[in-house]
Amino acid sequence: MEYISGSIRGVVVSFHGLGAAIRQGGTELDLALAEKDILTVVPYYGPWSWMNRVSRQFVDELLERVWKDLALPEDLPLISSGGSMGGCAALLYCRYGKRVPVAADLLYPVCDTLFHYHERPDLPTSLNCAYYGYAEPWEEVLKEHSPLHQLDKMPRISYLFIHGCADDRVSKKAHSDAMTAALRQAGHQVEYLEIPGMRHGYNVPLKVHEKRLDFICKAVG
User: Fold this and answer.
1) pLDDT (tens digit, 9 = 90+) per residue, 7-25?
2) Alpha helix (H) ranges present in the chain?
3) Strand pairing of 10-15 and 158-164?
4) 69 CB-contact burial (10 Å; exposed 0-12 / middle 13-18 / buried 19+)
């Protein structure tokens, strides 16, 4: 709040990636948004949540508290944002959240959780932890938390996908390529930036940050 000088024009709920610790201070994007009087809210619900049911409830309650404590108008624009596991969470918040965002900003997002479960050897541990104790069959649990398998429930808002062509951690083909194609086929508004040479979580060019800032500011209006 200390970086916002005027009235809040919009809120970004920014979901962290796999293994993230509590964020101390704002990122460059958070600070750039604050200069535009756009507030960033960063839910922290543990490093391996994969937007499970408890996390969804937590985010709903957190945002209700933000709206109440800051006396924000009910029609204030909300943007869902995140990268990697956070991109999955951002999409799932669009699907399940109490407040429907006006736009989703997605950086190399996980979109197909069923595929991702076997994509790397480190992933089953975190996903098993996130969904431990659910009564439903495991495949149904993964589908519940897979944006690609929740396509018919996704809201008709603006989506920005950005994915690097050299990503070796979250397959561009299996995730962003598949999700953007499915959304477009279903008639959704989708913008997709495919960045040559960009990998996962590093060597992200300046134009990516500029594009995300521009997209969010336009969504806020």
Assistant:
1) 999 999 999 999 987 877 7
2) 28-35, 53-69, 85-96, 113-116, 123-130, 138-144, 178-185, 206-220
3) unpaired
4) exposed
